[in-house]
Design brief:
9 helices, DhaL_dom, glycerone kinase activity, 3% strand, globular, DhaK_L_YcgS, 2 strands
Length: 216
């Protein structure tokens, strides 16, 4: 596989929504320790609205940027707290890189994710890896995609590496002290608990991986 089309991206979003829904209780459990305890409910609500809106469009006649913009706006409108702007910003920046495109190769996909990462960091006020946020799984996943481009690998191999990197990054947040958001008030007491945002990013990357590798 060397390209993803509009219908592929559409299907990946459907799969991501399924994974978020299946894990919403766990995401809220993780959030209950270091946040408000409603992250799973909120992010699932956002993806439900995204899928509702996507159901009204024909993916074969819609460019990738418009599909991702639809997701972004749904998340921005329906996910409360800081998560809405962060996850909405991720998809918004990915959308801006793919507006008007009906197919994207790996280099463009890597650019989409990198632009999404930049957007999240800007919204988060310069959030860095190690701050115990969604960046801790997103950043290494983007690095893996960029490395795959440099090595001229295909999309399947690229997302295999990105998934490994995202999972490793998400799990690593359990050993970090939170430096952003409400969780930062806990200081060292935030150690021992995996970040829910980083976990959600892992699930989104998993959707890309499972779709491209046929595990869906």
């Amino acid at each position: 596989m060397d390209r993803l089309g509009s219908r592929d991206i559409y299907s990946i979003i459907l799969l991501a929504k399924r994974y978020i829904a299946e894990n919403r209780e766990e995401l809220s459990r993780l959030d209950s320790v270091i946040g408000d305890g409603d992250f799973g409910i909120n992010i699932n609500r956002g993806f439900e609205l995204a899928i509702e809106r996507l159901s009204t469009i024909d993916p074969d006649k819609t460019d990738i940027g418009t599909i991702l913009m639809t997701v972004a706006n749904a998340l921005l409108e329906s996910v409360g707290g800081a998560s809405g702007p962060l996850f909405g910003g991720l998809f918004m920046n990915m959308a801006m890189t793919s507006l008007g495109k009906y197919e994207v190769d790996l280099a463009t996909i890597a650019n989409m994710f990198n632009d999404g990462l930049k957007g999240v960091r800007e919204i988060g006020g310069g959030t860095m890896p190690g701050d115990k946020t969604l960046i801790d799984s997103l950043y290494p996943a983007v690095e893996a995609l960029q490395q795959a481009v440099r090595e001229n690998r295909d999309i399947v191999a690229a997302f295999k590496d990105a998934l490994i990197a995202a999972e490793r990054g998400a799990k690593a947040t359990a050993n970090m002290v939170a430096k952003r958001g409400r969780a930062s008030y806990l200081g060292v007491r935030s150690i021992g608990h995996q970040d829910p945002g980083a976990t959600a990013i892992y699930l989104i990357i998993k959707a890309f991986h499972d779709y491209t590798s046929g595990k869906r």
